[in-house]
Specification:
By secondary structure, the protein is mainly alpha-helical. 60% of the residues lie in helices and 3% in strands. The protein is built from 27 helices and four strands. It has helices at residues 4-12, 34-54, 58-68, 79-82, 93-111, 115-121, 144-158, 168-188, 210-214, 222-251, 258-272, 279-288, 296-326, 344-356, 362-389, 395-400, 409-419, 474-481, 486-496, 501-504, 508-521, 530-556, 561-572, 578-590, 596-615, 621-630, 636-647; strands spanning 13-15, 432-436, 448-451, 461-465. Strands 1-3-4-2 form a four-stranded mixed sheet. Helix 17 (409-419) crosses helix 18 and helix 21 crosses helix 25 (596-615). The radius of gyration is 25 Å and the shape is globular. The two termini are 39 Å apart.
Length: 650
Amino acid sequence: MKRFTKALVSLILIMSMLFAMSGCFIKDLFGDDSDETRRRRRNRRTEETTEETTEETSEETTTSAAISELNFPDHVFTVEEIHPVRANGTLAGQEASDLLDELEDEFLGHVITSYVDIELCFANPENYGFDNVEPTWGDYTVDYDAELAFYNGILDELLTIDKESLDRSDRIFFDKFLYDTEEAIYGYSYDGFEYITSGFNALTGPQCDLVLLLDVFEFDTVEDAENYIALVTDIDRYYDQICDYEEARVDYGYASSDTAYEDIAVSFDNLAAMEDNCFLYDTFASRLDNIEGITDDQKAALIEQHDSAMHDSFFPEFVECASRMRALIGSSGSDTGLYYLEGGEAYCDYIYRALSNSTMTIEEMTTQLDETITNSYNTEMEIIAAAYDDPNSTLIADYMAADFSQGDMSANLTFLEGAIATDFPGIPPHAYHTFDVPEELQENFSPAAYLGYHLDVNDDNLLITNPASVSSNFGLTCAHEGYPGHMYQSLYTRNATEHIYMVINDSIGYNEGWTTYVEAYSARYFSDNTDLNTIIAIENSLNTLLMARFDIGIHAEGWDIDDCVAYASSTLGYSLAASDLQEIYNIIVLDPGYAVKYGIGNMITNSIMSQAHIDFPDATDLQIHTAYLNALTGTYEQITYYMYEELSGN
């Protein structure tokens, strides 16, 4: 597992999905011989296994020997094996609560090791024991033995605590902390997990939003600016580590395809091409104006140092990365699902559990996904059929003219902040800032993004808009990113717990489950046509559900792109060609779990909310949403327990 910086940045910079399949009212129905599909997939795996067996040349033997150095589970562990029933400890009351706080501080000090993490997370890092941290990006890889020892130490301490003696807030934290620690122990027990996925994929790798991330840093002192320049310089060292990692993947037999390496190289070519006209030169200079008391001479010196760092370290590193990635072309790798990789089945199970935020097995996810997709599609078709049969229905016309927006990001957020007040609990006073994606990045950037900058205060929230991607549904995008989506949920959680761990170490599946749920819910604020809102909600949901099903098919069942097309055709009647799915297929293949965090999160969150209305028929949406949010960011199973505890009045 790579260093915390990579994981943290991906959680903080939360974007809408890169690609979404367009919904439509009328879809051609195509049959599919599912038995033939399964037979073709089974035969393909058999053929590939045979080829691997018959081609055990000296080169193959070398690769096998390299893989044999790595450690993998001997079976796919069950949740019960990873999370056995634990007896209560004996440490109780205030002593137990104090120990929890100490362990939380110990965890934060262990995993937040880079200047980048600290600057992004905290406006006041000294309050969390972070002082005089070296301005670097940290290290990309970790010592598995050291990590295993650390988390086993945390576990030993946690097991001394009598959970039942804790107050509700500490019990919620204890449950999540224990669960996460046990997951970490399992993950760090197998160093083979380290090399399975690429660090530099061309679509979701760290290089894709690097320059935008650097633009977020603020300067309050001259030292801030100097540290920023050090970070710019340190990209040389840090990205060299990721290149080393990619080369090690090849040595261990996990090479990507020639196309993937060329695409990664092109992503670095594009960064290198910005050297003479990058917006960071201007924004660096303008940020110096925020430093109180800075002199013109100091500004000039800092600008000169920054320019040197950009020209001598930053952009040359991108040229070097492109060269090193192209040097891996010809490594005989391929882009394939985890299903076909050594250790892939266990790794798939492990990351799906993390990204979905659920203890469901892959088989359980698949069954519920298939049922949910079919039921959602059938509901949509029933509404559409009824509209065509009713000469007085305005649904079709309303759909074609639908406008779920109040204008720009600020206008939509102002509208939504007031509109949601009767359905969602209040959040404390706060501030947010908006800015547009620089023109150089707009082509490959999502419609919007939320950056939970400085999680220890309420006033540094950042909402990013891509002017090139604004559509008539932009208000729903603003609901996803702002109110009552990412920004709202982040603010609520930070102020509902004293444990910042619950914010920093939450699950992206939890985040996206909530935001895809409230995005659909928020359609009612823009339209009073219930059927239209249902159709919009189903189409948005089907996009995420279908992509999650592709994700599971590719990585857990060995699907290729034709299998994805066949599933969509047989299940939903989508009239698709392989070329229609190529972009999203590439994302999912190269980034296992990319779609699971959206689709499974969406599915489970919707299910929890629907079931809560059944189990508590007198509860209002406000009460259900409040109970859900008060349960904080544990697994969905933990959330349901504490949500129901509150709704039951216990």
